[in-house]
Design brief:
By secondary structure, the chain is mainly alpha-helical. It is built from nine helices and no strands. It has two domains: 7-56, no CATH class; 59-286, no CATH class.
């Protein structure tokens, strides 16, 4: 109600509609008013639009919001999971030594090699994400071009620009002898990369929340999210099994701090992804079909 008239009439729209389109319509109303458009016709148009929005709003739209939130939750969970897996699995194939790794394999032949499992789920997760990214990117570009939303193109450019810039600077950040300055620069560059990953993920999430996608694209996204979540479950189970086998082989002398930290992150991120998918599917199955 702090908006100038007739933008105050936006309060008559459904809350979900206002959350997604309210700011843009508010800017449009301001531009039209500053351009000399009469306030009465604008008020009539806003009232008609509010009535149409409420008529179109059904529980199916709320389900769409749940689906969006579920996909975004899985995306953020997968990013955190993959970062931890990359750190923990970097030297897991020979951790804590080649002799110990061979000893574990001999004593527990059925225990999966956690390094190869994490490597495999990384491939599965990246492949599933890339497959889903293509139709989402195509439809987002079409939607942005049709509605003259250049901001979407800017958001779409964030991930490749960040990835290219960070990878291009890796040789410079790691070049030279192992001095304190070089190690400091390397750590700062790693932190900058993590910040770039977070910014890229937020940009993708913003596109998903503000763009209309077809049912086929949503199905592809849901299948991709299910594949990623399944891979996370497998990786978590493999890492837990490997850690328990390592502890059994080494006794109480085995250090477990890194393993416990990794398991905690794996469990939390995987649990969030599973809960989000289950909640979305339950909401969908509980709804009647809408023609």
């Amino acid at each position: 109600m702090t908006k100038p008239w007739p933008a105050r009439l936006l309060v008559a729209y459904p809350p979900d509609w206002r959350a997604r389109y309210g700011d843009e319509v508010d800017l449009l109303v301001r531009d039209l008013r500053d351009g000399g458009r009469s306030r009465v016709p604008m008020a009539v148009d806003l009232i008609r639009g509010a009535a149409a929005a409420w008529c179109r709003t059904r529980r199916g739209f709320a389900m769409s919001e749940r689906s969006r939130n579920a996909l975004i939750t899985v995306l953020w969970s997968w990013v955190a999971y993959a970062a931890m897996a990359a750190w923990f699995g970097h030297d897991l194939g020979i951790y804590p030594s080649r002799g110990t790794a061979s000893q574990i394999a001999a004593a527990h032949p059925i225990v999966p090699d956690a390094y190869h499992v994490l490597y495999a789920i990384g491939i599965v997760g990246l492949a599933a994400t890339a497959i889903a990214a293509v139709p989402f990117a195509v439809e987002a570009a079409r939607h942005a071009r049709a509605h003259h939303r250049n901001r979407v193109f800017a958001l779409m450019a964030v991930p490749p620009v960040v990835a290219g810039g960070w990878l291009g600077g890796v040789p410079l950040a790691t070049h030279g002898h192992a001095t304190t300055v070089r190690l400091t620069v390397s750590v700062l560059w790693l932190l900058l990369g993590l910040a770039g990953i977070a910014a890229s993920t937020q940009a993708v999430a913003r596109i998903v929340m503000t763009t209309e996608f077809s049912a086929a694209t949503w199905r592809i996204g849901a299948a991709s999210a299910a594949a990623v979540t399944a891979a996370m479950l497998v990786g978590t189970g493999a890492t837990i099994t490997w850690g328990l086998a390592f502890r059994a082989s080494q006794g109480h002398t085995a250090g477990a701090s890194g393993w416990l930290v990794a398991i905690a992150v794996f469990a939390v991120t995987t649990g969030r992804a599973v809960i989000a998918l289950i909640g979305s599917r339950r909401a969908t199955s509980a709804e009647p079909a809408v023609a």
